[in-house]
Amino acid sequence: MTVWTLQPIPADGDYLVFGVPYAGTGAASFTAWPRELGAGRFCAVQPPGRENRFGEAHVGSHQEFAEGLVAEIADRLDRPYALIGHCGAVPFLLQIAAHLEKRGLPAPRRLFASGWGAPHKGLYGKLNFVDLDEVDMVAEIEERCAALGHRLPPEFLEMAAETLLADVRLQRGYRAEELPSRNIPVSVIGWTEDAVVPQSEVWPGWDECASATYHVLEGDHWEFLRFPRALRDLVEREMTAVTSA
Question: 56 by DSSP, 3-state: which?
């Protein structure tokens, strides 16, 4: 039974990309990706506490997240694969990759880390530096939906706000104590109009902790969720290079 992925992991394709959802969202945020990347190339991760797993408790740590996901996908890593995530999803990518290496399992050929700065330098984004008791999480969700041209019914807004709050609380506890080795390259992605994690905060320090390359794409903080052509082309280019090497 599928638990940690919204759909069964594709059985074919020249490479595979696992998408880890952005804070407050679930696997449905990657709806367009399988079609855009091509059949068999993409699998959306579904953490507990959201969408079809809303009745389950949220994970208590990044390590717990990594252990749960890896336990499910460990026997399906028989082709080149990558992990991709945006903003608060990036620490999860790092923890997952480190856990895979620790277990001696096939490691991702690349990480795509969007809208997040060097992990050892701290946290990023306004929600990590405000009093959460005073933040209107429903308004935060409405802002995201408006940016993407979506509207959620009131009952779903409340559910999404609850998920976002849980995600931010977990995010605030992250410390970069276990990072993947430099054997796993990282494509660090900044966005030209990002007002949440400005591109000026994204790149500094990554070269201190990873084999990183930096890419600046056009768009605001939410552009990642729209999966623009430039992002698709970057993923395809990097992963095609891996499979043809």
Answer: coil
Q: What is the edge-to-edge ordering of all strands in the sheet holding 81-86?
A: 42-44, 16-20, 81-86, 110-114, 186-191, 212-217
pLDDT digit string, tens, across residues 192-202: 999 999 999 99
Give me the half-sphere count of Cα atoms (radius 13 Å) on the Cβ side of residue 171.
27
Task: Let me know the angle formed at the C-alpha of 27 by 24 and 30, rounded to the nearest 5 degrees.
Answer: 105
Give the residue carrying structure tokens 């939906």: 145
Q: Percent of the chain beyond pLDDT 70?
A: 99
Section 72-81 average pLDDT: 94
87 pLDDT higher than 80: yes
In sequence order, which ranges of the chain are alpha helices (DSSP H)?
A: 33-37, 62-73, 90-102, 137-148, 154-172, 199-202, 206-209, 223-226, 229-244
- 140's CB contacts (< 8 A; 6+ apart) are 24, 127, 161, 164
